[in-house]
Amino acid sequence: WSYALEKPNTGSIFNIAWSIDGTQIAGACGNGHVVLAHVVEQRWEWKNFQVTLTKRRTMQVRNVLNDAVDLLEFRDRVIKASLNYAHLVVSTSLQCYVFSTKNWNTPLIFDLKEGTVSLILQAERHFLLVDGGGIYLYSYEGRFLSSPKFPGMRTDILNAQTVSLSNDTIAIKDKADEKIIFLFEASTGKPMGDGKFLSHKNEVLEIALDQKGLTNDRKIAFIDKNRDLYITSVKRFGKEEQIVKLGTMVHTLAWSDTCNILCGLQDTRFTVWYYPNTVYVDRDILPKTLYERDASEFSKNPHIVSFVGNQVTIRRADGSLVHISISPYPAILHEYVSSSKWEDAVRLCRFVKEQTMWACLAAMAVANRDMTTAEIAYAAIGEIDKVQYINSIKNLPSKESKMAHILMFSGNIQEAETVLLQAGLVYQAIQININLYNWE
């Protein structure tokens, strides 16, 4: 698509070149002149705010709720900007400005070591800048936090698909070996856990960290070169974490900024995984936790730009933006479960009367070891065999055997056996293996 058309009175333009930061273009003309142009009218949106780069050094902020307009003037030309999590981060050729959406008049300003910022990523607590010298993490108060490094790091090729940021983790795809993803602690810049990187059997194309929840539950989703979507845990201590396939023919993905809901464009369908963790808890009900709709309206090669609240923004190949709204109820369910309000969660599911909600609640309840809620939810989606098994777990005499059977329910047979052996329940451990025909 064409953003702008200019016909300067300079004869034919024989050659053009972009500046390193991608904001200026120069053209060599037939009559000996050199034309210089700057990229303007770039637009960033977040909730009720719209920010437009009107001139090289001027931005206009518009609040669509009350039509209030603010003008932001900068000393140098704007190179990169990002608007998310109630903050606007703008990098110019010499400085970085951090604006809060509550107050546009007093930005926080700090100097940059190198002016060519090529990428800005934001999380709820901090933001990340990438320039020619390295990767730098700052708090929204302008305090420098960390600068992760790994062997053979090249910052000039990093982009939003190969770097991901959450409140506690930074994930970076390696360029030398594209099967490897490096994981760093955001606060220190040191490698996560025991220092092991994440390795996959195929080349990885795109990575994304979930944004909510505890550090120990942090998940990373990624697409490999076969366009398969995988999910795995970020915390890796000794034992090899399972990398589980979530979907096939996935072209682009994004996590919600308010809860751990994942969306992606899958072949000819737009798919939302309301509770991706279901693959670790009860794989059988995963299809019941999905929302799917036809994606043919987005034409070829669409790309997910953002997933804010319950609104997904998709850019089509012709440059136009399409907004999709998904149900707000799964996000409310996530909120209730994270604060252990199980009765409210059940009440919400009864109000909504949707199978996807009950399936999500069933998986969430098993993951949080709340078998009473799990029993109600499984009964609502007609999984009678699982209701009976949960009832049998409730009648077990010891705490350890209950724990072991809950782990077995989620498919963690090895862990269940370990729990029983540690509690001295050797007979039950043998019985589990006999029931599963594990004669070795």
UniProtKB/TrEMBL annotation:
UniProt GO BP: cilium assembly
Pfam family, one: TPR_IFT80_172
Keywords: WD repeat
IFT80 second beta-propeller domain ranges (all copies): 41-329
Coiled coil ranges: none
One GO CC term on file: cilium
Sequence ranges assigned to domain IFT80/172/WDR35 TPR in this UniProt record: 357-440
Protein's UniProt name: IFT80
Source species: Cervus elaphus hippelaphus (European red deer)
